[in-house]
Amino acid sequence: MSQIKDLTTGNIFSQILKLAIPIIATSFVQMAYNMTDMAWLGRVGSETVSAVGIAIYIVWFGASLMFITKIGAEVCISQSIGRKDMNEAKEFTRNAFGLSFLIAIGFGFLVWLFTGPIVSLFQIESDFVNETAFVYLRIVAIGMPFTFSNITLSGIYNGTGNSKVPFYINAVGLILNMILDPILIFGWGSIPAMGAEGAGIATVVSQILVFALFIVLLKGKNNPLNTKKYLGKLQKKFLNPIIKIGGPVALQSACFALLSMLLARVMNNIALGNSIPFSVQSIGSQIEALSWMTALGFSSALGTFTGQNYGAKRWDRIQKGFFITLGIASTIGLLSTVLFYFFGAEVFSLFIKQSEPEVLKMGIVYLIILSFSQIFMSIEITATGAFNGIGKAMPPTIIGIVGNVLRIPFAYIFAYSLVDVLPLFPEYLNSDSVPVTSVWWGLTLSSILKGLFLFFGFLILLVRHPENNQELPFQKKWINLLPSRIRQQAAVISPLNQKVNKE
Questions:
Q1: Do the Cβ atoms of 125 and 51 come closer than 8 Å?
Q2: Helix, strand, coil proportions of the chain in percent (round to 5)?
Q3: Strand, coil or helix: what is 437?
Q4: How far is residue 495's CA from residue 490's CA, in Å, rounded to a whole number?
Q5: Per-residue pLDDT tens digits for 276-290
Q6: What percent of the chain has pLDDT over 90?
Q7: 48, 49, 52, 58: CA torsion to nearest 10
Q8: What is the maximum span of the chain, computed from C-alpha positions, in angstroms?
Q9: 490 Cβ contact list (under 8 Å, min separation 6)
Q10: What DSSP string runs through 404-437?
Q11: What is the pLDDT, as a whole number, of residue 155?
Q12: Backbone dihedral region of 245: left (phi > 0), alpha (psi from -120 to 50 degrees) or beta?
């Protein structure tokens, strides 16, 4: 019980900040596995980066499935704690971990079994890229049961308000990965240079260590909810809420991963088989993760904070927590915009050899284009955390999936119908490469739309919810932006709110 943090009273800003920082640090640690691989492999060559990029999409898809149990555990456990029902919280913990282990084993086995067909989906012409991707993916598939279970174990701790333990454990794994990467990739002494294969081995060994540390601590004093039994018979009573809350989030993230793979194929078609744009996007997506992982950390913190206060029926704190987190996330988005737009060359050059100037120049363009969407992406992620915390994961799922699907027609429209209106970036690109940027303009436009829809969607929920009698910041200005029909309904609900509160 000493490990549980009560988020239903106290200073909201400091609570969210204290909860978010370890989550962000943990996310950065998890992301740093791929970024470390990319940074070292970029010194090997862009084709090796492309090969690992293929595998990362598959790992991303598998990790998306784990949102079923990670988000489900975070929200269900936090809501149980808000209701002061610790036995229920323990049961959610056991069921979430048990389900996650089954999913992780099953997915890892399928990836290992169908590695060849998976790699061929990307339609990369280079035999070296395809063969390297096959070997790397086979290796990381072996470690998936550990890698993916670690995600849920982190979520269990987050749900109790204790986000520091996952950070410490994952940091140890990252340190080991950073030590092993250069040794196994380039060789050292009697150890031969293994390239991408060495990077895969380093990642798997590190994740096994992280899993082992989690298991050891779960048996000690730092285990959440003071229970030492984390595996047992799965119970429908507890699985259903976990899947109901985490399922839509996992569906959205999995669709995002699948659509990103499909979008990579679209980009390869537009690029006529040239692997350079794919290398750029593989590296660029890792760089962009700096901003969305930070926002996602605050989103997870907001989800846990909102979950506890939803269980305690503290709508005043839910509303304040949302706007505080929104302000923090928007600041992060603004800083990312400045970094990507003005310092794209310095950032991208950290991940690619100077002997490949064409890759570097195209990477600068990628970051410039994505810079315009960073604030809206941060808003989207924040609103998603707020929706998840109150158990309404479906609205952000629908908006997220629709927005991501639109990226494909956006790419084709910009590439073929509106290619003449696209910025040329003559100092970085030749005219033949301009159509490839259509994919990245589609990413930016969809992120802007998703951010706006989810922001106003949660505003409407706050205005219309019968248990919320708190006035929104700048309420009159926000209300004027809402459709007149909704404003009229809110005006009817408001007196009812006041009546309920008086009673």
A1: no
A2: 80, 0, 20
A3: helix
A4: 9
A5: 787 787 778 778 877
A6: 16
A7: -140
A8: 78
A9: 463, 464, 479, 482
A10: HHTHHHHHHIIIIISGGGS---TTT--GGGGGGH
A11: 84
A12: alpha
> How high is the pLDDT of residue 499?
40
What does the pLDDT look like over 135-187, one tens digit per residue? Answer: 889 998 999 999 888 888 888 888 777 778 888 888 898 889 888 988 988 88
Contacts of 379 (CB under 8 A, 6+ apart): 326, 329, 330, 333, 451, 452, 454, 455
pTM (2 d.p.): 0.69
Beta bridge partners of 191: 188
Cα–Cα dist 390/16, whole Å: 16
Q: For residue 17, what are its two tokens?
A: 């900040």
Q: Residues for the chain: how many in total?
A: 503
Interacting residues of 482 by C-beta distance below 8 A, sequence separation 6+: 456, 459, 460, 463, 490
On the CB side of 43, how many CA atoms lie within 13 Å of its CA?
12
| Phi, psi for residue 191 in degrees, rounded to 5 | -85, 120
262 dihedral zone (left: phi>0; alpha: psi -120 to 50; beta): alpha
Phi–psi pair at 188, nearest 5 degrees: -160, 120
The predicted structure's pLDDT at residue 500:
40
Ordered by start, the domain boundaries in the chain are 12-474
**What does the pLDDT average to over 454-466?**
85
Question: What is the number of other CB atoms lying within 10 angstroms of the CB of residue 492?
Answer: 9
- Residue 272 to residue 276: CA distance in whole angstroms: 11
d(CA 89, CA 179): 38
Q: How far apart are CA 391 and CA 244, in angstroms?
A: 8
> Which residue from 347, 100, 45, 123 is spatially nearest to 242, judged by alpha carbons?
100
Q: Which two tokens stand for residue 253?
A: 């993230």
- Does residue 62 contact residue 99 with C-beta atoms inside 8 Å? no
Reported as a pLDDT band with limits 50, 70 and 90, residue 502 is: very low
For 273, left (φ over 0), alpha (ψ -120 to 50), or beta?
Answer: left
Instruction: Check residue 225 and report its DSSP letter.
Output: G
Cross-strand partners of 188: 191
Q: Measured between alpha carbons, how far apart are the two ends of the chain, in Å?
A: 35
